[in-house]
Amino acid sequence: MTEEEFLAAYDASAYPRPSVAVDAVLFTIRDDALQVLLTRRQAHPFAGLLSLPGAFVGPEETLDGAAQRALREKAGLQDIFLEQLYTWGDPGRDPRLRVISVSYYALVPEDRIGPLPEGTALYPAHALPTPLAFDHAGIIRLGLERLRGKVSYTDIAFSLVPEEFTLPQLQRVHELLLGQPLYKANFRKKIAGRIEETGKFTSGGKHRPSRIYRKRALPAEPLL
Amino acid sequence: MTEEEFLAAYDASAYPRPSVAVDAVLFTIRDDALQVLLTRRQAHPFAGLLSLPGAFVGPEETLDGAAQRALREKAGLQDIFLEQLYTWGDPGRDPRLRVISVSYYALVPEDRIGPLPEGTALYPAHALPTPLAFDHAGIIRLGLERLRGKVSYTDIAFSLVPEEFTLPQLQRVHELLLGQPLYKANFRKKIAGRIEETGKFTSGGKHRPSRIYRKRALPAEPLL
DNA sequence: CAAATAGTGTCTTTGAGACACTATCGT
DNA sequence: ACGATAGTGTCTCAAAGACACTATTTG
Q1: What rounded mean pLDDT belongs to chain A?
Q2: Which residues of A touch B87 (CB under 8 A)?
Q3: What is the CATH number of domain A17-151?
Q4: CATH for B16-151, among 3.90.79.10, 2.60.40.10, 1.10.287.1770, 3.30.70.120?
């Protein structure tokens, strides 16, 4: 059977086509812990359980666009770091109908999060209530793995920190993602090329103020 | 609007739901080059152009299952390395109808490839004909990036080499994926823990025979 | 023994890791 | 001066990189 023949058969068949949705794992740092945005489900299935914010993909909408919309609608967030994670499609993952879910993970500094709608809140990523709706526990686990894997060799940690930040703050984010303490001096050497000074300092603490930095605009390394 | 309301509206709407397909980028090494399996399209759209092997996802089929099926049908391959790559869903990427495509990349040693069906053949990955059908050029480019990124810190190169192989062979695969020559001694040190000797040697060459190895069954490193 | 490729020993360079030290704030 | 946190200098160690050497086959 050629693809065209299959398509014709598929088009004409009585099979319900799968629906396509997006689900987003929104991470942020709050109360010195990595947290995930979850909403409590009102309706069947999994009524009463927590689930990831999601949305069905509109007919004229890109996948990224649908993920952005989901976060805008459920958390009032715009222009945040968003990256595709994995696509989940096991038959039966949604008991109502076949749903293919394209999952995303998103990173946002706490100061960008406004008041959340009723039923939506942040939960600590390493002590989530159990069970969660659908296969969302697995999606979050994969998001955590991806995050942990990428933090050491990319810039993603900057997306979890305000535009202007101190190095102790940034180091703490790395430590929370990696789950282990880091040596101050080594950490600073490693990120030295990716930051620039603002000239400002913190104040008010009962200790030495710390320098305030921002992310360096251009990658320090020119192409080889 | 709650999710349930949206779902009800979505269900009842006249919108055609997207179709969901899989496309696979099958890589192999042949004639001392990395090659990709492509099939020439017979029908509209993009008739006459080359495209990736793909399939629509059946109603009771997993995504991985559909990708395996596509490769079985188009290349007679079974039980090969297969990993999800990215999901493409821009409206308009297929001019006929909305198609969400979950892309995979697959790796197979040349000796596992049998005779290919009419219109299907291998093409050198770094000198592909242009243009390709749909957004398949982008899918292949992403597959190449993923492959290059992963070769240095994972075992994937073993999937491009027969079960029993020599180190010059394995090194050549690394060099083709990375696009640069490697130092013999350093390469051997790096993979020393991941291989084991078979006790066999090559023969017939006009030079010193090389030892034949296989992949080490268990990861040498115990959990910390 | 010459050509050709397989395989090894070892010096250098780089970066991660560990730790001790100094600096500057508030009280 | 002290408690607390910010920030730096430097030794160690392991891995990556570079290169030169030895080994074993065929003709």
Answers
A1: 91
A2: 63, 84, 87, 102
A3: 3.90.79.10
A4: 3.90.79.10
pLDDT of residue B76: 92
All CATH 3.90.79.10 domain ranges in chain B, comma separated: 16-151
Protein B193 CA to nucleic acid D14 C1', in Å?
16
pLDDT digits (tens, 9 = 90+) for B138-189: 999 999 999 999 999 999 999 999 999 999 999 999 999 999 999 999 999 9
Where does B161-215 sit in CATH, by number?
A: 1.10.10.10
CA dist list (Å): A110 to A37, A148, B60, B128: 12, 19, 42, 46
Residue A146 burial (CB < 10 Å; 0-12/13-18/19+)? middle
Its pTM surpasses 0.90 = yes
**How far apart (Å, rounded) are the C-alpha atoms in residues B211 and B164?**
10
d(CA A114, CA A167): 25
pLDDT class of A12 with cuts at 50, 70, 90 = very low
Nucleotide with minimal C1' distance from the CA of B207 is D25
CA B185 to chain centre: 29
Digit-coded pLDDT (tens) for A59-97: 999 999 999 999 999 999 999 999 999 999 999 999 988
Q: How many CA atoms does the CB half-sphere of B76 hold within 13 Å?
A: 11
Neighbours of A35 (CB within 10 A): 20
